[in-house]
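Q: Convert this sequence to C-alpha cells.
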Amino acid sequence: MKRLLLSMLLAFAALQPLACMAQTTLFKFNQDGEFASISQSIDQHSSFSLSVSRNFTTGVGTTASLSYTSLTFAPDFSSLTVTQIIGVIPGSAFTGQNIQNLTLSFDTSQLDPNNSFSQTCTIDLSNTAGSACVSAPAGTIQLTFTQNGAQRTRVLAVGEEVTIGNFTERIHQRSDNSSANVSGTIFGATVSGGGATVGINHNSSLEFVRN
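A:
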C-alpha cells in the first residue's frame, strides 16, 4: 500500500529534471489538532494518498486542510495520470471531538480557487516535457476513521518533500499518531481497511509550491 505509492513516486521522480531554483509558494497551512490519513494501492497500476488536518486558528473561524494525490500508470507504463487536490475546507467538513472517531465529508466542487488547487495531468513518460493538464473532476469524499490502537507512534520531527511534475509538497510534522480503520468512499470508489492513521498535529505545516 504505502510501499507501492512510494515506489511509484520514486519511479516517476527518476524521470524528472531537477527542480528549478525559482519557486513560488501557492499555499501554506499551519496544522494543529486532529488529523487523519490513508494511503492505499487500488491495483498494480494505481494508488492514492489522502490526508486531512485541522488548521491552527486564532478564533476567526476553524478550517481544515485537505491533500489528495492519485497516481495511475497506463497498462504498458507509457504514461502516468496524476490527480492533485489541495486546499482549505470548512472545519465543519472534518468532525470528531477526539481521534477515536473522525469523519471527513466534503464535495470538492466547493473548493475556493483562492485557497485551493485541483488538477489532473497525463504525462508521457517517454517525453516528460509533454504533459496535458485539466481541472480535476469534482466529487464527494465520505470517510470515517476509527482508532484501533494496534500501533501508536510519536513523530518528533519529520521533514518531507515530494515533487510531482511542476509542483512540490513540503511537509513538516510533529504529531502523536495511532493506527486506525477507515470506511467510506472517495469519488464513488469504496475505501476500507485498517491501514489508516489518526492523530494530533503539533505545530505542523503543509506547503504547496510551484517549481
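The chain has one helix and eleven strands.
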